[in-house]
């Protein structure tokens, strides 16, 4: 008989599949979550015990569980939450999620979210290894090492021996194509709308969400609903693009309209401005996005 934890995680996986189906996402992703849910519902051993004994390797050894879904299971076991699901529900609280990592208090969580727009543990892990997190106020060498160690324990990964680079992410051209598709589809009223729970006292379904597949990547795009976006009146400008590979491992970037410098008025990918400069120099690109 399946344990209560197994059933709870399976229910979340089924809910994700249902939401993705309602939002016309890729059928491959939908089937993958449903198959993983079926595995957990039929699993007699408690998945928490498997993770405790064997880490992510023990999870991946189960039928229909790849690296990405294993990371999801680890996140739910550790935090009780699943950032991807809560994002699509519209009730994600990224500052609370970041505080589940030992070494990150409320003030640091706010700094990380406001400066880097990070709202998932996977994105935090990437930032911890590609020198992005180093620049955040409150992050020194010791705290960075502690955060890396905590994320390794939470996500059940083997210790990393390399840095994550932009070579493992979609190209600037592709990200800007997704951004343009999202903005054009939003203007055309062609996207489903979700009702975010944060900064939405009337519970209005106003936030457009895009699911699409290009060049071997699965993408989800939506306007930023962060406190900083609302404070700066950028909630209809900043677009957060989440990307997933076929193993459901997630990354993210934020695309904004630059407000100063040589790129002023153009759409740029935060953290990859130099690549955007090179992109716009190419004679085949348009003047404005």
Automatic annotation (TrEMBL):
It comes from the Bacteria. Keywords: DNA-binding. InterPro entries: DNA_pol_lamdba_lyase_dom_sf, DNA_pol_X, HHH_MUS81, RuvA_2-like. GO terms for molecular function: DNA binding; DNA-directed DNA polymerase activity. Residues 6-81 form the Crossover junction endonuclease MUS81-like HHH domain. The keyword DNA-binding applies. One of its GO terms (biological process) is DNA repair. Gene3D superfamilies: 5' to 3' exonuclease, C-terminal subdomain, DNA polymerase beta, N-terminal domain-like. Pfam families: HHH_5 (PF14520), HHH_8 (PF14716). This is DNA-binding protein. It comes from Sedimenticola selenatireducens. The lineage of its organism: Bacteria, Pseudomonadati, Pseudomonadota, Gammaproteobacteria, Chromatiales.
């Amino acid at each position: 008989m399946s344990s209560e934890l197994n059933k709870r995680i399976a229910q979340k996986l089924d809910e994700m599949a249902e939401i993705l189906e309602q939002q016309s996402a890729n059928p491959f992703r939908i089937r993958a979550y449903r198959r993983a849910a079926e595995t957990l519902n039929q699993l007699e051993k408690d998945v928490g015990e498997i993770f405790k004994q064997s880490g992510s390797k023990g999870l991946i050894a189960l039928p229909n569980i790849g690296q990405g879904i294993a990371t999801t299971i680890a996140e739910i076991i550790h935090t009780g939450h699943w950032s991807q699901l809560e994002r699509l529900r519209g009730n994600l609280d990224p500052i609370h999620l970041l505080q589940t990592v030992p070494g990150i208090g409320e003030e640091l969580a706010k700094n990380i979210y406001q400066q880097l727009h990070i709202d998932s543990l996977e994105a935090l892990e990437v930032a911890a290894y590609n020198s992005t997190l180093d620049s955040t106020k409150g992050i020194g060498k010791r705290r960075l090492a502690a955060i890396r160690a905590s994320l390794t324990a939470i996500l059940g990964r083997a210790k990393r021996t390399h840095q994550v680079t932009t070579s493992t992410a979609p190209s600037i051209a592709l990200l800007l194509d997704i951004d343009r598709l999202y903005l054009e589809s939003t203007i055309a009223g062609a996207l489903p709308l979700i009702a975010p729970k944060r900064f939405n006292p009337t519970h209005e379904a106003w936030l457009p969400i895009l699911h699409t597949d290009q060049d071997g990547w699965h993408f989800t795009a939506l306007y930023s609903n962060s406190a900083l976006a609302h404070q700066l009146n950028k909630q209809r400008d900043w677009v957060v693009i989440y990307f997933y590979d076929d193993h459901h491992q997630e990354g993210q970037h934020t695309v904004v309209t630059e407000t100063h410098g040589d790129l002023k008025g153009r759409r740029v990918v935060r953290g990859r401005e130099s690549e955007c400069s090179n992109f716009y120099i190419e004679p085949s690109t348009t003047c404005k996005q």
